[in-house]
Amino acid sequence: MAWDFATDEDFQPKLDWMREFLDAEILPLEAIAGDCTPEQWRVLTDPLKERVKQQGLWACHLGPDLGGQGWGQVRLALMHEILGRCEFAPMIFGNNAPDSGNAELLAIGASAELRRRWLEPLLAGEMRSAFSMTEPDVAGSDPRLIRTRATLDGDEYVVSGHKWFTTNGSVADFLIVMVVTNPDVHPYQGCSMILVPTDTPGVQIVRDVPNMGEPHIEGPPRPGGHAEIVYDNVRVPATNIIGEPGDGFVLAQKRLGPGRIHHAMRWIGQARRAFDMMCERALSRSAHGSLLADKQMIQDMIAETKMEIEATKLLCMHAAWHMDRHGASASRTQIAMIKVYGTRMLYNAIDRAIQVHGALGYSADLPLEGMYRHARASRLVDGADEVHKVTISRHVLRNYEAVEGWPGEHLPTRRAEALERFADALDTITANS
């Protein structure tokens, strides 16, 4: 039996290339991203995507039959730790959310025609997609409350409902919509996923919702926005259903499980970047006669952040390993733990980095303030932290049983049992002493 924390020798060079490529070619784009038109952005990033494809690193979450590498969650986790340093990196590597998860859904449950019409161009980077599940009138943390309906009418589904926070919804070519197809059974058996092209009559993209990460949304829709969408008697072919009617929750688990691990590893990459900035500042800035790095309170921040980052990575890699071995359903506790712990770690790392930088960290002259605002969403997306804590607690408690009378560790009871169990031995020792 061995515990091995080393990366496979054949895989480490790929990680090294990703890290160098990201730092040299992708990170510099951050400084001008806000000034680029969509066309300028394509001109800048398309050559980078080609270099990724030449390295065989495009859409690695998918199988070789779909142009990916078929990597398991452990390798994908290590990859996403690197890509998490920059918000644009996943897009350049063909595994950005929500497209990556939607591609997996189509690969798992779509018909051959749907895959040809929508999956192939999605994988080629010729289309964008969105996952439309959250609704404004019900708790997003309880998808059993979904109200959007899809009623079968002949050979078509008629979709009616109200969604919001549909990431990329305003720029997507198609939407995968979580709907109720059978309201007469439990939601776990009555929900389905249906593909809806955004140019279908009745699809109303109301707006991109202003939020803490983007409080002043101006100009045309762009990737990363969280759209509010009304589906007003939208008719799509019945063949646009993904999987079978009632498969919605099963498909959602298959989609969200890996996504949460990838999110957590990207958070580690983001936290490491904030940590690097904090350490650089501590060694560069003097106050009250000495470097910040010599102050015990700053040293405490650095030590706590380093420990939290490394603990998060261990939790995340274990979750990835467990999922590779046992699948998503059997790894719900591990995935929930990394989701909750990862959000806490990310917040702490960025918050401390801002504190060490003082007014400069609070200003928009550094990326920390933007990272901080975006990080707040991590406690809500893919399920609120509180919901995941309930999942953890319920799964843990299944391994325990209630007892009557005194607790199992009650010392007087244990002493009486021990005296009875070892009475002969104690008598022999006493007689021979």
Describe the structure.
The chain is α+β, with helices and mostly antiparallel strands. It folds into 4 domains: 12-110, Acyl-CoA dehydrogenase/oxidase, N-terminal domain (Butyryl-Coa Dehydrogenase, subunit A, domain 1), CATH 1.10.540.10; 129-242, Butyryl-CoA Dehydrogenase, subunit A, domain 2, CATH 2.40.110; 249-397, Up-down Bundle (Butyryl-CoA Dehydrogenase, subunit A, domain 3); 404-433, no CATH class. It has helices at 12-26, 38-54, 73-83, 89-92, 99-109, 112-123, 187-190, 248-284, 296-326, 332-357, 359-362, 368-375, 385-397, 411-421, 423-432; strands spanning 129-132, 149-153, 156-167, 174-180, 191-197, 203-208, 226-237, 241-242, 286-287, 290-291. The strands form 3 sheets. Strands 1-4-5-8 form a 4-stranded mixed β-sheet. Strands 2-3-7-6 form a 4-stranded antiparallel β-sheet, with no helix packed on it. Helix 3 crosses helix 8, helix 5 runs antiparallel to helix 6 and helix 8 (248-284) packs antiparallel against helix 9 (296-326). It is globular. The two termini are 44 Å apart.
